[in-house]
Amino acid sequence: MADILLSSNFQWVFVSAVMLGMAAGMMGTMSNLRKQGLMSDAISHAALPGVMIAFLMTGEKDLMFLIIGAGLSGLIAACLIQGIHQSTRIKEDAAMGIVLSVFFGGGIMLLTIANQVGQGKQSGLDGFIFGQAASMIRSDAMIMGVLAIIVMLVIVFRFKEWKVVLFDPNHAKMMGIPVKFYESFYTFLLVVTIVIGIQAVGVILMAALLIIPSVSARYWTHSLLIMFVLSAVFGGISGGLGTLISAFGEGLPTGPFIVVSSSVIFLVSLFLGSKNGLWIQRMKLSKYKSLKSSHDVKED
Amino acid sequence: MSYTGWILLTASLVGISCGIIGVLLILRRMAMMADAISHTVLLGIVIAFMISESLQGTGMLIGAMLAGLLTTWIVQWFQSKGLQSDAAIGVVFTTLFSIGVILIATSVGNVHLDVNHALMGEISFVPWNLIDVPLVGEVPLAVVLLVTVTALVLMVILLFYKEWKITTFDPALAASFGIPVLVMHYLFMSMVSITTVAAFDAVGAIMVVAMLITPAASANLWTDRLWLMFVLSASFGMGSSILGYVIAIWLNTSISGSMAFATGLIFLFSYVFAPRYGRIAVLKKKRETI
Questions:
Q1: What is the pTM of this model?
Q2: I need a surface site. Which of A46, A57, A104, A152 has the fewest CB within 10 A?
Q3: Cα distance between the two ends of chain A
């Protein structure tokens, strides 16, 4: 068991899983504030056909090509959801359901075909569904880690602009910030964050890594900056812990362990969070009640 | 009946039952809740299997129904604690689904269940799993399950047709009439769960989402009348099951994947040609008003 932890391959995978978790935590804070948590779920499911088409076209499991394929089909899916929602009477959540399930169905069709024609090179493609960090080689891990760091840097260096665009797009326009550009760039970054994670976390559960850490962070703070930092920390811990646990067993899927790790953090935050946690809420309520009752007595 | 006959019958029943329940899902704006339930049902099935050690019949149905209700209840509880609805859904279903997958993948659950089977179903095995039904003879278990569930869903919808209509379109008015809106909500969610689990064997947990949402959304573009929407959605569901099967045989690929894909084809057709809210109709109307 210690052999696995000491192998340099695993250490690379571990470090990049932490980076991925941090990037997803930051990105998730943005998508959560825009109430687009489930959008990331739709995009990650929709990435599957892109992965398969890239594999069938190149005939190889080169992660860079697969990521580009996934990114393209994720972007198309995001545009389709917007398009269906805006041009018909169909609501956004139904549009997401349609695109998510139809793209995923197409992905499963292509996966089955790839399993028949791939001549052995296709083994491991199944891992894209639930994530298989253990099957990653060092170069895959490096791609994932470097792209995650780039996403984080883009967010950090333009933090002020992101903040204004998120909370007050009109004000941002007056300040001369190209809001349209930032909106499209946001979608692009979201898709990048999702697709770099699909090999480690899997298309089905990637959305959880964006949603859960940022939701947890809200229970600890009211400040946006601290929320970003906390969410990144929570995401990083979940990514690392999940990868670690799944490395102990033969062929264990990574995604579910990452999600359960982040859910534990969420439950702790929900109950004990220092700003909005249930325990604090109850304390405030009882304080208020006792104040009120003593006040009532005085009035009598 | 022949092998292909049973498969087509199973697929059509999935399309019909999901198509019917899907209309209410779309109109109540709960499409993503269906996505959530179709995932969490897996946990219910795994736990039911751990207790009863069999993958058949009522135990599975009850487990799935409880999982569906639990999902609904937790999501509502989170919402009452101030969580946004999509965040609540996202947290709950990914967590419960992950626990289900972990139980399957590790020896903890000791479940002889294939994750891929659970996700994608294996409709080609349906005709092999027969049980004896009095008067009819040997019938695949999945067909019996689907017929029962479809009949149940139809009955509940027809019995309370007016109530469904009012609670769906104007919950506040429904409450003022004394209709128990919350009870109806949970009843509806139970129906979604049992439909999901009945379809589970045939098309798998995730493809159910395609069957639930897409035919109903397509029907939504064709008409404003509720009863017609039910009829159209059920026919679209059935049509895409059969179309999906044909595509799968033609390309020699996953049947459930093709079925989900076929719902997309029917939606695309509706998007362009639907007589009421299709693209062409809408553009024509615009031109006439100008």
A1: 0.89
A2: A57
A3: 71
